[in-house]
């Protein structure tokens, strides 16, 4: 006598699609983000020689200097960094990231023959930076990445445990890219590049956190007293709540509400007080 299929049976066809739909939704979101980022690069930024930060900016710098296709550099530079950070990411994130990079690279190749949609470099920098940032943020929102520089820096920092923080290393990398673009293309192009970079950096947060201005920052550290003094001195921020994080340990949790644009400076102050602190941000 054959066993009946139940709701818990792995062969139940009614349950099988539910395992597929979340993955398809994630893939669709990452593909949409990749196409939006590709449009921002090829239809606004690249025709005017505007470069942003990260691996995307480095790829654009190489493409503008060598007159080779941007998509080739996007894939070839991101893939080794993804392999470098493989121990700090899970398999699903890596798989969706590779898919996103493929669409991102192919999208820039397909859009390359089309002319720029705007003739004014400043408007192109604003629109392209916004489009690129929204695309990168959308990919992150759905569990992938189109720029692996930050993951690679975090992986490198976790191995060495020395030197600058990941935020400091990313800042140095982006400054190097923007300075190289400025020396290569001139001061005026450097101003447009910095404008596009700032707008892209801020617009990445929109798909992740929405349009909320204030965010809640949670800090877990052994040096809570020192962090409180530093944040009160430099940012005029007071802890909203303090509690013990772990029983029998000296870890504590501080919670602050601050403006979203203050979070990079807040992170720098906290890491200066305690490099081993853990910081989480939520809207």
From TrEMBL:
Q: Which InterPro entries match?
A: UPF0750_membrane (IPR051461), YitT (IPR003740)
Of the GO CC terms on this record, one is: plasma membrane
Q: Where in the cell is it found?
A: Cell membrane
From which residue to which does any coiled coil extend? Answer: none
Task: Report the superkingdom from the record.
Answer: Bacteria
| Swiss-Prot/TrEMBL keywords | Cell membrane, Membrane, Transmembrane, Transmembrane helix
Q: Main location per UniProt?
A: membrane
Q: Which residues cross the membrane?
A: 20-41, 61-84, 91-111, 123-143, 164-187
Regarding the membrane, this protein is recorded as:
Multi-pass membrane protein
* PANTHER family the UniProt entry points to: UPF0750 MEMBRANE PROTEIN YITT-RELATED, UPF0750 MEMBRANE PROTEIN YQFU
Give the protein's recorded name: Uncharacterized membrane-anchored protein YitT (DUF2179 family)
């Amino acid at each position: 006598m054959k066993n009946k299929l139940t709701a818990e049976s792995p062969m139940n066809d009614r349950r099988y699609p539910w395992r597929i739909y979340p993955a398809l939704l994630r893939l669709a979101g990452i593909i949409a983000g990749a196409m939006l980022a590709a449009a921002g690069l090829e239809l606004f930024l690249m025709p005017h020689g505007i470069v942003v930060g990260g691996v995307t900016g480095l790829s654009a710098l190489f493409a503008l200097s060598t007159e080779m296709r941007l998509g080739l550099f996007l894939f070839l530079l991101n893939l080794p960094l993804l392999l470098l950070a493989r121990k700090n990411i899970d398999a699903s994130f890596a798989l969706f990231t590779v898919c996103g990079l493929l669409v991102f690279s192919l999208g820039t190749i397909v859009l390359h023959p089309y002319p720029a949609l705007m003739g004014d470099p400043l408007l192109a920098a604003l629109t392209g930076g916004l489009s690129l940032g929204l695309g990168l943020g959308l990919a992150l929102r759905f569990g992938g990445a189109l720029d692996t520089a930050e993951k690679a820096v975090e992986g490198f920092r976790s191995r060495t445990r020395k030197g600058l923080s990941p935020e400091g290393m990313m800042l140095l990398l982006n400054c190097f890219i923007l300075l190289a673009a400025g020396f290569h293309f001139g001061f005026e192009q450097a101003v447009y590049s910095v404008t596009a970079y700032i707008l892209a950096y801020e617009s990445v947060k929109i798909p992740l956190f929405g349009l909320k201005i204030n965010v809640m920052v949670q800090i877990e550290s052994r040096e809570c007293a020192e962090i409180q003094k530093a944040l009160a001195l430099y940012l005029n921020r007071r802890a909203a709540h303090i509690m013990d994080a772990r029983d029998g340990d000296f870890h504590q949790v501080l919670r602050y509400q601050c403006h979203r644009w203050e979070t990079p400076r807040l992170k720098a102050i906290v890491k200066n007080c305690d490099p081993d602190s853990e910081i989480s941000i939520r809207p």
